Amino acid sequence: MRLARLARALIATTALFALAGNALASQSHRSEDHCRRGSGVYAADTSQPVTPTFLKKMREVGVRTIIRYFDHENETFKNKTLTFEERMQIAEAGFQLVVVFQHWGQRISTFRDHTRGKSDAIRALTLAHDVGQPVGSAIFFAVDGPWSSKDDLADITRYFTDVRRTVAMRGNLYRVGVYGSGLVCNMILDKGLADYCWLANAKAWPGYDAHLKSGRWVMRQLNPGKCGDREVDFNFVPKNAAYFGQFR
């Protein structure tokens, strides 16, 4: 009998701990759930064309800026590249827009190719013209990796040097932004090769904490989640970053 009572007590205690753990997990999940009113998100990054359902949900959540992509003709996946028609759809729905160029930015081989900075910039400028992007707004270029070696950073620096030079040679019509780790953002900003940093939500990448504390970023990526009709990356914009390259 005593053993039975002890067993029942142990089961009850275990159940209580499980309930408490589930409650904490649920609370933690809610704290990371940005697909709700009042979550504080400002921008939403999507690699798929927008839809009326998606834009309606973003408006409900409080998003004011949609982030879409430029890519080469051989896109890394179908319909990744912003079109003029989609740009107008976003504008007519009352949102601002930010564009980021990305073509295998998660491969260091991209930045080791000494032709890519120029070719990516030319393609980005062509697409900016095609969608009617206003002069003075920004094009971000993505560096999607944790690279920190001297050689890798030299390749990334060369890439942005070529991007900056190409933009300047073609009228300097657009500002340049960098998406990446804190280390990459800090380096590219220090060298004057970009005007804005969009800090990737990869806290294990080098320099994240230091760059976050520095305040030298205009957008900070948050945890992804499903919202509306797709997976989306939300982004926080600090109050002092009134302008970060966006356009209507």
Overview of this structure, please?
This protein has helices at residues 2-31, 52-61, 84-92, 108-112, 116-130, 150-169, 182-190, 208-214; strands spanning 43-45, 65-70, 96-101, 138-142, 175-180, 196-199, 219-227, 230-236. With 248 residues, the chain is of the alpha/beta class. The protein folds into 2 domains: 1-31; 39-236, Alpha-Beta Barrel (TIM Barrel), CATH 3.20.20. The protein has an 8-stranded mixed β-barrel, surrounded by 6 helices. The longest helix is centred in the N-terminal third of the chain and has 30 residues, at 2-31. The model is unreliable at 1-31 (pLDDT under 50).
Keywords:
TIM Barrel, 42% helix, disordered N terminus, eight-stranded mixed barrel, 8 helices, 8 strands, alpha/beta, 248 residues
